[in-house]
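Practice problem: predict the structure.
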Amino acid sequence: MIETERLLLRLPEPQDAVAAVEMLRDPETVRWNPVVSVVDVASAVEWCARGADWADGNHATWSVVEKASGGFVGSVSIHSINREQCDAEIGYRIAPPARGKRFAGEAVDAASRWAFAEFGLVRIELVHAVANPASCAVARRAGFTLEGRMRQSFVYGDGRRYDEHLHARLRTDPAPGDLGGW
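Answer:
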């Protein structure tokens, strides 16, 4: 478990399934970060179980919960972990009621700090569609530097191919909390 000022990052649990399916069926989530295998609560329970199973060593996934209310905020995952290169990627999803509260940046920062310490990573990458400026703001708030634009690099949930921004954070970069908070 990881704790921040406002959030708890913990292993996904079956009790997260109802909120998770609502988040994963939200049109904005479907557009930018779809999980086509989740169509109902039963498939969301399976999705939570896969997130909680870190046995393959390829990811570390958490449900993000607001400490004050206990409410489900979203999920964050360090994935595509390459231990030889000491790098990984990070992704996240935020439930519609939790958007605009800067929870995403806080969760991404916390998971990144944890991954640098626990896995000895040197670099974590965050990629998002250029057409999704909210994700660009999350990356900046979480201490990720914009490194460039990848042209026509990925087909998103709406079936369109988008340019993407590549952001990265190095273990040696100052973390947002070290610069005065959110």
